Amino acid sequence: MEEELYRLPLYYDIAFSWDLTKEIEFFGRVFRTHVPFEVEHILEPACGTGRFLMTLPLHGYRVTGYDRSPVMLEHARRRLTESGNPRVVTTIEADMESARFTRRFDAALNSINSLGYLHADEAIVAHLRNTGESLRPGGVYIVHVACAGEGGETSSSGGSWEMERGGVKVHTTWGVEREDDDAKLSHQICEMEIDDHGEKKVLVDRHVLRLWFYDDLQDLVRRSGSLELAAVYSEGFERMPLETEITGEMGNLYYILKAV
After folding, report:
1. CATH number corresponding to 159-209
2. Contact of 53 with 89, CB cutoff 8 Å
3. Which candidate, 221, 252, 50, places its Cα nearest to that of 144?
4. Residues whose CB is less than 8 angstroms from the CB of residue 28 and which lie 6 or more positions away in sequence, other chains included
5. Which of 15, 26, 192, 226 gets the highest tally of CB atoms within 10 A of its CB?
6. Would you identify the CATH topology of the domain 4-147+211-259?
7. Domain coordinates in residue numbering, the chain
8. Is 142:256 a contact under the CB 8 Å cutoff?
9. 259, 256, 232: which is closest to 243 by C-alpha?
10. pLDDT digits (tens, 9 = 90+) for 37-79
11. What is the pLDDT of residues 109-166, one digit of tens each?
12. Closest CA to 158 of 178, 172, 169, 144
């Protein structure tokens, strides 16, 4: 069943509307370090309400985003039209497991654990294979996910924050309820306290995401046949040795997958 959060694009968009400047500057550094050509056109799977679709063009990139939710895409397209500069952005309704493009993009990105909505190994491998084959050789796919907690502890991904836009205030708390190591599933909960021009409501939404293990993630990348792990960066955008023992206490990390 589709989570209610993704049927309420305005509140979702406000909740996740933090400043992306430092993250996009980090992407630029990754491109300069790991891609042997200039990155101009970026693919974004699971683009949602268009956070990056709105901001990446301000840094000189063209973007193609896709999402399985027509409601989220409609919201993104409306915002792009209102911005007055939708010409460098393309939006497509598609699913991560099956989306494949003949065009060779320079890079791709997948933020805040959106990849986790694919649970099965076969679905993840198919997505990685298709994405890698949609990139020019030497291009990179930046995947942003958190791994499992250590010693039975849940991972530290999530947190609590408040955002406001146009008289609508959204206080969001996102956390991990439990992690099932055997099933490789992470059961998470999102609670939003919404003040919409004085009308108050509370949304509680549960999400089931893939539970990542570093060795497992590396194996899935190898099985794709079209990508290889080139680097890992911390939440603070610092490069980490590939042999680092990675656990959930480190939060969401950036995995740089290079198209081969």
Report:
1. 2.20.130
2. yes
3. 252
4. 59
5. 15
6. Rossmann fold (3.40.50)
7. 4-147+211-259, 159-209
8. yes
9. 232
10. 999 999 999 999 999 999 999 999 999 999 999 999 999 999 8
11. 999 899 999 999 999 999 999 999 999 999 999 999 999 866 555 555 668 999 999 9
12. 172
